[in-house]
Each structure stands twice: as C-alpha cells, then as structure tokens.
Amino acid sequence: MKYVLAICVCLMIGCGEQPGHSVAEAAKEFEEIKALAEKGDAEAQYQMASIYGRGEGVEKDFKEAAKWHRKAADQGFAMAQRNLGAIYYRGDGVLKDHVISEAWYTIARANGDGVAMRAKNLKATSEQIAEGQKLSREMIAKNPKLINNK
User: CA-to-CA distance for 88 and 134, rounded, in angstroms?
Assistant: First the structure.
C-alpha cells in the first residue's frame, strides 16, 4: 500500500519537485506496483488501472485501464467492479454496454461498495437492468471469487 500511495502522490504532484524523491524513484515504484499486479495482487491491479485511466505518469489508456480493472474485479475487488460498471456505462476503452455495466454495478453492490449502491444506470432501460442483474448471477456462478467473502 505504501508504494501505491507514494507513486500516486508522486505522479499527481510531480516527483522532480519533491525534495528527496526523484523521477527515477517514482519509476522504480511504478515497476514494483506493476510487478505485483502481474503476479495477481488485486490492489496493485486496481492501482495500475487507476494510473492508466488518469494518465498519471503514463499515456492515458482506457483499454489498459479496463484490462487492469477486470483483473482486480475478477478477484472480488469491489472498487474495480464498480469502476467496470462506470467504464461500460461510458464506453471508456470498451464498447458501451448498459447490460454489462449493470452486471458489474450489481456485483459491486453485492460486495458492499457504497458508491455502487448509490450509482444509477440512468441510460439503461428496465429490461437492460433486469438483464444485467441476470448476467451478474451468471458471472458469479462461473466465478465465485467475484463475491469477496472477507
């Protein structure tokens, strides 16, 4: 977690301007987070998604952000699941799909994500919402790890 916070702060406000924290150190921290993400650490995967989604120290890349969110979401990381709901709602790096959006929001809600609980898929029809909720049940049946039982 300390790496995540350090790199995010560094990338947002500029490492070169921080006494005692160089661009090289930020790059090293990024590589450490990436290595953890590639090994399957859900929190690091979520942070990689955030870095690419915001373009913090890297070129903004919504497809890359969606990829990393999906990896974390598949492990039951609720914030990544909620963000996938938003990604499919807006069509950032993926095809816009209100059914898939609702499925991810539903799964995030099942994991207790407060933001997802308040999120409304305003552009979805009632049929799309029902279909998304059905899809979420099918997704959970195929991958029970989607529900974080911690």
Answer: 17
Q: What is the DSSP string of 95-115?
A: ---HHHHHHHHHHHHHTT-HH
Give the single-character DSSP code of 150: -
Tell me what the mean pLDDT of segment 24-52 comes to: 93
For the chain, the domain total comes to: 2
pLDDT tens profile 122-137: 889 999 999 999 999 9
Residues 102 and 62 in one domain: no
The enclosing H or E element of 8 equals helix 2-13
- Same domain, yes or no: 70 and 134: no
Query: The whole model's pTM is what?
Result: 0.83
Q: Domain residues for 47? A: 1-75
CA-based nearest residue to 6, from 55, 44, 39, 61: 44
Distance CA 17, CA 145 (A): 42
Residue with token string 């914030």? 79
What is the C-alpha to C-alpha distance for residues 48 and 11, in angstroms, rounded to an integer?
A: 12
Lookup: tokens for 7:
């790199």
